[in-house]
Write a structure and sequence with these properties.
This protein is an all-beta fold. 2% of the residues lie in helices and 26% in strands. The protein has 1 helix and 16 strands. The strands form 5 sheets. Strands 3, 6, 9, 10 and 11 form a 5-stranded mixed beta sheet that branches. A 4-stranded antiparallel beta sheet has the order 5-4-7-8, with no helix packed on it. Strands 13-14-16 form a 3-stranded antiparallel beta sheet, with no helix packed on it.
Length: 272
């Protein structure tokens, strides 16, 4: 695989004040797309990260391929043998606002091109921090027939739809023959001390910063729906709650927050 150059560091002040162009993401001299944070202001919003439509096992309203498995553990390190890889970046909204508490669920094959469909090897979810940052520690995935090298991910801001997509590696020969491959989803990759480091900024189709705690109002405008679900509760996979007269089953372990009520986060809750 080719090595990609690094991009210059920028301050948080610059990051938060920047506005980005709506035109297709430009390419760096090395051929990888420029990071969202380095595409400078020309008066328009960011272009959202594209969906990856592969035609396999459609999950409304997006596709995820045949190997997605719910209930992944919450972790940012996916242990296993192979070439070490760390992928990091930010999650932005369309107005270049970093988004906190975004759910990112990653899954990939092992170094031999095999997915673990019985357990949760190389599967895990995490949440962006207050600055919209994430970091995944894993290995470089292997190859299997018909596909180029890639990592799957589902991204969901609180109370927003799920984005299902894939991340790709520059310089892979199979990028030219994989019908699913999209160059806009290329990571920037470099090698440091024997490990690979990838960078990618997600841009979700969110007009502004979601507010998981809700917008305060002087008096309630509606009657709370009631039920056993409650914010600030640590739920385990398989736990059931009631909300708004319906029953929901927990798909992924998490600590609930206001704004993440079961009907709003299908990545966390399934109605039964």
């Amino acid at each position: 695989m080719e090595e990609e150059g690094t991009t210059p560091a920028i301050s948080r002040k610059t990051l938060l004040k920047a506005a980005f162009i709506a035109a297709p993401v430009p390419l760096l001299a090395t051929g990888a797309p420029a990071l969202a944070r380095t595409v400078w202001a020309e008066g328009g919003p960011l272009e959202p990260t594209p969906f990856c439509e592969d035609g396999d096992d459609p999950t409304i309203p997006q596709t995820e391929g045949p190997y997605f498995k719910p209930n992944s553990p919450r972790r940012s390190t996916l242990p296993g043998s192979g070439t070490p890889l760390v992928v990091s970046g930010f999650v932005f909204g369309l107005a270049c606002q970093p988004l906190a508490n975004v759910l990112l669920d990653f899954w990939q094959c092992d170094t031999n091109g095999n997915y673990d469909n019985r357990g949760f090897n190389f599967r895990g979810h995490q949440f962006t921090d207050a600055q919209g940052r994430y970091q995944l520690t894993t290995i470089v995935p292997g190859l299997y027939p018909g596909r180029t090298r890639h990592i799957h991910v589902k991204a969901q801001a609180p109370n927003r739809p799920v984005l299902t997509t894939q991340l790709y590696f520059p310089g892979e020969p199979r990028n030219n023959t994989d019908t699913i491959f999209d160059p806009r989803l290329l990571m920037t990759i470099r090698t440091v001390n024997g490990r690979r480091e990838g960078t990618f900024d997600f841009v979700l189709n969110v007009a502004g910063q979601p507010t998981p705690t809700g917008s305060p109002t002087p008096t309630p405008t509606t009657t709370p729906p009631g039920g056993s679900w409650a914010p600030g509760t640590a739920y385990t996979a398989g736990a059931t709650v009631t909300y708004g007269g319906a029953t929901y089953r927990c798909l992924q372990p998490h600590t609930s927050q206001a704004g993440w009520e079961p009907p709003n986060v299908p990545a966390l809750w399934q109605r039964v």
